[in-house]
């Protein structure tokens, strides 16, 4: 049995829809020219041509952002919140058009693309509230007539580097908070997502004009990774918030560290879910299929390893395989499609290499893995999500292959499952499916999952913005969006105010 498929739209249809969406977002599509070809992974066709910025543009844009920062930092934070509030309103009004660009460029199915824009709206709401809560602590001083306090101040220019798979939401996570904190923002989107970035930035630019914020407070840098290096090297970029592969993090982090800049890293994951014997398998099945096959396996939080108790492994794997065979693969804008394209030929080749290696290492492909030709589109790469039973997790299972491959491992004791879960270099997202509260608590304890995200009876992907998001180990240690993530975009000063009229020194030191 083969998967149902949805053929991509006829050539030219998508480019026309993209032009319409750009116009609605306030971008003149005829004004977009330049050497960069913005392609769609749905058909491989060129949707539009855009500028490609150079190192000279880096200097100019960072300079303009820095200039704007000098004004913006003096605007009271709750007033800065008005900018983000307006951006959120514009995103709400234009949700469908921006989501269309995300579908066209990143290949996300419609509901996930809409969800991505909703995430932008949600973080704007959160940031507006945060703009009245950039609070510092007051501490008791050891000296009489003294007040000790911590205050928070903006950093300056925040550089945001984003990945192709969340082409706009990750920018909003950073920009909404960075702006209310009083920073200017320069955004370098992924090379495959310039149109989505142009659309999202146009709405922010409009909000900037409408609320009278300094024009330069937002900047868009359409640049590849080579020019991106000049961007991360610029000493005026106080914080580089970079989302992408571990490879990128290894290049960017030392460069920023060498100039004592700050980094916030959101890198690759190799996420696992444990399925205990007591698990509700119906619920687990749905959580697993969404996390593993959704977004065609191209989320940082995609479920890549299933660690299932041997007593339920055969039944669960059989049910996952059956569910996989029903997934409609193809045009992500067609109703009913659940699995869109991979982003590129390179992704497809990486998926094929990983599967071949898994088999060499003793794996058995239970379902999927093949290319699906949904139409005569040689430059579009659709694949069947794969499930592979593995004898252990040395080798290929240690790596994040950014494609829908779910490796299945079995266990006997919970300690063994947790050791497998933690036994990879990455530390982003994790989950356990169990009805046993003691097991769930052990998984969540300090001796349990070592990831930044640890869930119970829910899959590894689909986080809400209220919680801080990020991961440990090679995932980079950064935290974005909710709780105290705003502090990453600010510097802290400790203030001692002496109103005593005397000059007592701390620790009882006597001098003069
Ligand atoms: P990538 O690392 O190829 O590129 C990400 C971004 O970094 C792009 O904008 C790219 O141009 C830029 N870049 C790469 N090398 C650079 C360099 N040396 N200097 C400056 N910029 C550089 O990643 P990708 O293929 O776009 O995205 C997929 C990866 O991103 C996966 O590993 C995924 O797990 C990860 N990701 C992580 C998170 C998270 O929050 N942890 C979220 C989304 C994606």
UniProtKB/TrEMBL annotation:
- Catalytic site residues? 266
In its UniProt record, a GO molecular function of this protein is:
aldehyde dehydrogenase (NAD+) activity
> EC number(s) on record?
1.2.1.3
InterPro entries (alphabetical): Ald_DH/histidinol_DH, Ald_DH_C, Ald_DH_CS_GLU, Ald_DH_N, Aldehyde_DH_dom, ALDH7A1-like
Stored Gene3D superfamilies: Aldehyde Dehydrogenase, Chain A, domain 1 (3.40.605.10), Aldehyde Dehydrogenase, Chain A, domain 2 (3.40.309.10)
Q: Which UniProt keywords apply?
A: NAD, Oxidoreductase
**Residue limits of the Aldehyde dehydrogenase domain?**
37-492
Keyword Oxidoreductase applies: yes
SUPFAM superfamilies from the UniProt entry? ALDH-like (SSF53720)
Signal sequence range: none
UniProt similarity note: Belongs to the aldehyde dehydrogenase family.
Q: How does it assemble?
A: Homotetramer.
Q: What is this protein called?
A: aldehyde dehydrogenase (NAD(+))
């Amino acid at each position: 049995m083969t998967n149902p498929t949805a053929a991509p739209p006829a050539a030219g249809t998508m480019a026309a829809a993209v032009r319409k969406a750009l116009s609605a977002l306030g971008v003149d599509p005829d004004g977009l020219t330049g050497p960069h070809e913005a392609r769609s992974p749905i058909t491989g066709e060129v949707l539009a041509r855009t500028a490609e910025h150079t190192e000279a543009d880096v200097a100019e844009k960072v300079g303009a952002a820095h200039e704007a920062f000098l004004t913006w930092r003096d605007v009271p934070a709750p007033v800065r919140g008005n900018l983000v509030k307006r951006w959120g309103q514009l995103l709400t009004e234009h949700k469908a058009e921006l989501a269309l660009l995300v579908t066209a460029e990143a290949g996300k199915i419609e509901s996930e693309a809409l969800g991505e824009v909703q995430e932008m709206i949600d973080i704007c709401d959160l940031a507006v509230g945060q703009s009245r809560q950039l609070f510092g602590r007051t501490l008791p001083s050891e000296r009489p007539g003294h007040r000790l306090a911590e205050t928070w101040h903006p950093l300056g220019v925040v550089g945001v580097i984003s990945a192709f798979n969340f082409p706009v939401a990750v920018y909003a996570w950073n920009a909404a908070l960075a702006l209310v904190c009083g920073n200017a923002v320069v955004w370098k989107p992924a090379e495959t997502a310039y149109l989505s970035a142009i659309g999202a930035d146009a709405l922010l630019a409009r909000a900037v004009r409408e609320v009278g914020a300094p024009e330069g407070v937002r900047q868009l840098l359409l640049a590849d990774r080579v020019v991106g290096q000049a961007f991360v090297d610029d000493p005026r970029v106080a914080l580089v918030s970079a989302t992408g592969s571990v490879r990128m993090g290894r290049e960017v982090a030392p460069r920023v560290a060498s100039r004592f800049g700050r980094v916030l890293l959101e890198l690759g994951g190799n996420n696992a879910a444990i399925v205990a014997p007591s698990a509700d398998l119906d619920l687990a099945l749905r959580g697993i299929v969404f996390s593993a096959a959704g977004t065609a396996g191209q989320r940082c939080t995609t479920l890549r390893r299933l660690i299932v108790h041997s007593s339920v492994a055969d039944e669960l794997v059989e049910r996952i395989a059956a569910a996989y065979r029903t997934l409609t693969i193809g045009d992500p804008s067609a109703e009913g499609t659940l699995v869109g394209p991979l982003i590129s030929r390179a992704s497809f080749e990486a998926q094929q290499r990983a599967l071949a290696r898994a088999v060499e290492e003793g794996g058995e492909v239970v379902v999927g893995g093949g290319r699906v030709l949904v139409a005569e589109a040689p430059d579009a790469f659709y694949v069947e999500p794969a499930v592979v039973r593995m004898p252990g997790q040395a080798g290929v299972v240690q790596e994040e292959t950014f494609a829908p491959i779910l490796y299945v491992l079995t266990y006997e004791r919970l300690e063994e499952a947790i050791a497998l879960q933690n036994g990879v270099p990455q530390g982003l997202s994790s989950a356990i499916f169990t009805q046993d509260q003691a097991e769930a608590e052990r998984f969540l304890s300090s001796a349990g999952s070592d990831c930044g995200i640890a869930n119970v009876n829910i899959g590894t992907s689909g986080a809400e913005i209220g919680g801080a998001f990020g991961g440990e180990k090679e995932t980079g240690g950064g935290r974005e969006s909710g709780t105290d993530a705003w502090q990453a975009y600010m510097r802290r000063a400790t203030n001692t105010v002496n109103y005593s009229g005397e000059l007592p020194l701390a620790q009882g030191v006597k001098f003069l």
